[in-house]
Design goal:
Layout lengths: L1 E6 L2 E3 L5 E9 L1 E12 L6 E7 L4 E3 L7 E6 L4 E6 L8 E11 L4 E5 L3 E5 L2
Parallel strand pairs: 2-11
Antiparallel strand pairs: 1-3, 3-8, 4-5, 4-9, 5-6, 7-8, 9-10, 9-11
Length: 120
């Protein structure tokens, strides 16, 4: 079993910053990709950013230039630095990790989600 635990969400004013963290634990042999997705009320879940084990990144168009994804492979942790936040960034942010477990099976797991609210 692989578990993901997110932290760092909250309420922030427009223009402010937040940093999300997501730590993976359990029977992990290796993690290939880690990423962040978000879902606003009444909308579909969308890509925010993903990062490979080697550090290649991909961002959703709406966050390019404002958000930065990074990861610490030694801690199986992914981070999302969010700057210049806008009200439209308000959503539940979900962490995702995909990789191989010690049973040599694949996993593709989600965290429980953390609320980010951007409002004055």
């Amino acid at each position: 079993q692989v578990q993901l635990v997110e932290s760092g969400g909250g309420l922030v004013q427009p223009g402010g910053s937040l940093r999300l963290s997501c730590a993976a634990s359990g029977s992990i042999f290796s993690i290939n990709t880690m990423g962040w997705y978000r879902q606003a009320p009444g909308k579909q879940r969308e890509l925010v950013a993903v990062i490979t084990r080697g550090g290649s990144t991909n961002y959703g168009d709406s966050v390019k230039g404002r958000f930065t994804i990074s990861r610490d492979n030694t801690k199986n942790t992914v981070y999302l630095q969010m700057n210049s936040l806008k009200p439209e960034d308000t959503a539940v942010y979900y962490c995702n990790a995909a990789g191989i477990d010690y049973g040599l099976g694949s996993f593709d797991n989600w965290g429980q989600g953390t609320q980010v609210t951007v409002s004055s």
